[in-house]
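Board notes (copied after class):
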Amino acid sequence: MRKQFLVIIITAVVVISALGIGALIFLPASSKTKKNQFENQARIIIPQNTRNMSSDMDYSAELLAQEDSMTAKVPLAEGEVIVSVLNGDFEGGPTEKQFIAYRNLLELESPIYLTYIDYDDASRGYKRVWSAQTAATRPGTISLYTQDLLGDRSLCVLLSGVNGLGEHTLTIFRKNPSARNELFSKIAEFRIDGTISVKEVERSQAYQMGYSQGQTYTIATYGRDFESANIMDQVENVYAYNSGNGLYEQTSRTRIPGTQIEQRRVRELLGNSRAFEEFVTGLWYYMTPQGTIDKRQYIYFSPPSREIIFYGDETQQVFTWQNSTATRYGLFVSSQNISVTTLKRSIDIELESLDSIKVRVFEDVRLKIGVNAPWDGSYRKAGPPENRTRKPHTHVATYIDAYYDGSIGKLQFFPNGTYELFSGNTLRQGKYAFFYLDDQELLELRYEGTAGAQRDTYLVEGEIYPEDRSELRKTLSLLRVRIGIGGVEKLHEGAISLTLASD
């Protein structure tokens, strides 16, 4: 009995010892785990609407950058309004300087002026040290940048734009090497009813490394040949810098025969910004120097939705169509990137033929993002040429005043370009536009969705009223499509049927 009791005691001691050892092994890890859990809990951040926060932060940063880029370092005079600002440490130096293009609203003609703001060591502040008038007058067409035109690393500032006559202008100032003269002197100024381009040439490696001077750039202007009966014939004038008098002077004149186009149609398009906008509406493929179509690069112009899409190098860039100015040979368009509003792009579009255009793109040199495709060149319109410049007989206006009912709900179009869609208990509002592409009528609906801006494009079909009823359709059949490099591509979804509601 005593022996049995002793066995029980020994067994109990062994069990208790084992439990103690287990506690020593596992309890510290458990305590450590609890400690880690507590520390991790202290770092928990309450979930927020990350989409809105990110959007607001990006938008605020963009606004600050844009506001900073359009702020003068000194106050302007009464009536003076900033058009463009160029910041930089021109010619080196510890302080930032500014070129400001501005207009004076108190003046009748209100031309564009250029002023230079520099840091003054004596007053320990910024001040305007020079101002001059330029040939441009239209604020929305201004491009301001600096460039070493002469190859001697002297500071040249160039301001291009359009004047009240629809002419392209370019005014160039050079900083004088001698302090005894005025700070800047005008070395060139052009006004022409065509286009102006700086002919850049490749400079030597010695110039790039600062050992020698580079070749001077020439400037070419292209205007109408008034000695020819063909409106499309042009004259190229080339100007070179004369170091003797410090001015650009004409060195050559070449007549360039243009395409023989039916002159009545040319007169309808040129000088009329609305007519030319209708002409360029749609998809344009890039023409290679060999004369072949490159469908990997295109520009899509959509005046109804005020949008321009550039596609090249497998990258799509969308720009807002801000304003148009009719020129002698086509249209000058100012645009702004929808994602980076500080990135602006000016586009000069010239008529080459009834199925081709010539495009020159002027980037805002203050902000370069990556390497863009070379947009300059000729483009050919997608689709059959015989119907490109005519509206189809069943054309519907860009904006209408109509109310439709159908499977998606009640859809109301307003004449100001907005729409409302009542679907169940949901109201969706946005903007819309009817337009044509490749002889097909399309409808674009835009709205702000949960994932940001949304855009749907539909192929439009349906019966129409007679002309005395404003050509409103009794029925609408909407088939969702996508516009790509192959034109209009159907998404093989079911059609949406709508019926015009009674008054």
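Comment from the instructor: The chain has three domains: 72-256, 263-384, 402-500. The first helix runs from residue 2 to 42.
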